Amino acid sequence: MTALIATDLDRTMIYSRGAMELAVTESDVAERPGDEDLLCVEVYDGKPLSYVTSAAEAMLRKLTASAVVVPATTRTVAQFQRIDLPGAPWRYAITTNGGNILVDGVPDSGWRSGVDIAMADGGASLVEVGAELSRRIDDSWVRSSRVADELFSYLVVDLDAMPVGFVEEWNDWCVDRGWGASRQGRKIYTMPDAVCKSRAVAEVRSRLVDDGVLAPEAPVLAAGDGALDANMLSAADAAIRPRHGELETLDWQHPTLSVTGSSGIAAGEEILHWFADRVARGAGTTAVGALL
Q1: What InterPro entries does this protein's entry cite (predicted)?
Q2: Which of 26, 85, 240, 257 is the most interior residue, by most CB within 10 Å?
C-alpha cells in the first residue's frame, strides 16, 4: 500500500441533512446533490441520519484498493458501528477521539489500557472534571450531557441560550488539569490531553509497518474539520480540511495543510479527489492550499 489515510467522518466524509447545508458560496448551493445522488450510510432510530454522495461512494471504494484507509472519529464505538461506510470492513478504525483502536471491529484492550494509564497520570480524573462541569451548567441551555466510553464528556447545547464566553472559561479551567474544551456545532467536548487522534494514528501506522502492509517511508495523509482533528492534521505528512467547521471558523492553518475550495457535502468529494491524487502520484505534497 502506498499511504495511510486517516480521515474524520462527520462533516468530513459523511454528512447529515443539516451538515449538507454548510455551503457558503453560490456555486456550492448550485452543486448541492439531489436525493438521487445520495447514499444513506447511517440509520438511527429507524431514520436515515448520514449520507455520502454516489460519487464519493465510488471514490472511497476505489481509494481503499490502493491505500490503507483508517476512519478516525470522535464517535464512541457504538456510534461508529452504526455507520455502513463504503470500503468496509476496516482492519483498523479509531474511535472515541483516539481512546479506542478497533482491530477487525473489536476494541484493542492493550491500547485502551495504555490510554487509561495516561489519563490517570495526566491530571484530573473524569469524575473530578464531570463534577466541576455539573456546577457550571444548567438545563436552561444544556439539552443533554453524556460521557463517551468512560473517556470524555460532551454537552449538546442551545447555542442561543449558552452563556457568552462559557467555552473559553471552561477551557481555562481544564487546561491546568490536563484537559481541554472545544465546541463543534452544538456539541461542547471536554477532552483529556491523553486522548487524541494523532497518537492512535501513529500506533496504527507502526503496526502496519511492522506487519509489512506499509513501507517505512509511506506517508500519512489526513482530513478533518474540527479542533479535535488539529493534532492529527498537523502530525500528518500532508493534510486537508474542508472550508467549513470549527477549524474554518478559527482560520486554522499549517504548513502542510490544504483547504478545499468548496464547503458542505461537496467538500467531501473534493477531499477524496485530493487523497486519490496524492496516492496516484506517490503522495507528494504541494504548496499550501493547492488542490488538483
Answers
A1: HAD-like_sf, HAD_sf
A2: 240
- Residue 22 cell numbers, joined: 454548510
Specify whether 93 is located in the same domain as 29: yes
Q: How far apart are CA 176 and CA 183, in angstroms?
A: 19
DSSP β-ladder status, 238-241 and 106-107: unpaired
Number of domains comprising the chain = 2
The span from the CA of 56 to the CA of 34, in Å, is 14
CATH for 279: 3.40.50.1000
Q: How many CB atoms are located within 10 Å of the residue 50 CB?
A: 23
**Please, where are the H alpha helices in the chain?**
17-20, 26-30, 54-63, 77-81, 109-122, 126-136, 166-175, 197-210, 230-235, 246-249, 265-280
pLDDT at 36 over 90: no
Residue 83 domain boundaries: 3-115+195-290
Ranking 37-51, 162-176, 199-213, 270-284 by mean pLDDT, the lowest is: 270-284
Is residue 218 located within the same domain as residue 170? no
Model confidence, pTM? 0.91
